[in-house]
Amino acid sequence: NRQSNESRGALIVLEGLDRSGKTSQSNRLLSFLEGLGFSVEAWRFPDRNTCVGGMISSYLANKSELDDHTIHLLFSANRWEKRSLMESKLKSGTTLIVDRYSYSGVAFSSAKGLDIEWCKAPEIGLLAPDLVLYLDIPPEKAAERGGYGSERYEQLEFQQKVSQQYHILRDPTWQIVDARLPMEDVEKQLKELVLDSVTACRKGKSLSQLWL
Ligand code: Z5A
């Protein structure tokens, strides 16, 4: 219905390798949009606060072992359990800045060798982002930033494979931003892109679904 579309929020997703700056930039975008008077929330996946999120968190911390397919489906389930809340927030006019989404799910699992189409399948029907911001950084450069932590996947060799999978997933609608630039320069570019997207959604751009 046109009236609710006119005031809907935008679904904005930040993607990129570990240490590419997603968390820093999503905080800055949150403050920026709040400052302009928009209703906005910052979300992240995995959402470690749900039961499924707890299983994911334990896996990432190397406290449990799971088959690659199983953990893939848990990451997906973690998005599905937030889908209806996501839709109602967007329809009521709240913009969501989301740190990692389905593309992380597909990139990380296919980097382990799982079939990419199999990885996409459980993501079908999730809400499609209005804007994907890819923070582009060579894995070697990202590794220089503060060093990796001790979580699973935080290794250069694996991040190189993830980077290749992100390249396969990219489509022309993604906005690729050079994440090697100083934080303020990245922020400036992101702000412009986000403002355009928020404006388009307020003007009636309709919500769509992933991978369809
Ligand atoms: N995963 C998955 O397998 N399947 C899925 O479906 C999903 C995720 C959703 C958890 O991610 C892991 O789960 C992740 C993918 C996998 N594994 N890995 N790798 P997470 O969200 O908990 O962790 P992360 O995304 O990797 O977050 P991060 O380490 O916090 O990175 P970040 O958010 O991109 O970067 P940051 O915290 O903003 O910045 C990192 C450092 O760089 C920090 O010291 C900054 O001050 C510095 N920085 C940032 N920007 C700059 C610039 N421009 N210049 C210089 N220094 C900078």
UniProtKB/TrEMBL annotation:
Residues 14-189 form the Thymidylate kinase-like domain. It is an enzyme of class 2 (transferase). The keyword Methyltransferase does not apply. Pathway: Pyrimidine metabolism; dTTP biosynthesis. One of its GO terms (biological process) is dUDP biosynthetic process. GO terms for molecular function: ATP binding; dTMP kinase activity; nucleoside diphosphate kinase activity. The keyword Transferase applies. Keywords: ATP-binding, Kinase, Nucleotide biosynthesis, Nucleotide-binding, Transferase. Its EC number is 2.7.4.9. GO terms for cellular component: cytosol; mitochondrion; nucleus. Belongs to the thymidylate kinase family. This is Thymidylate kinase. It comes from Aquilegia coerulea.
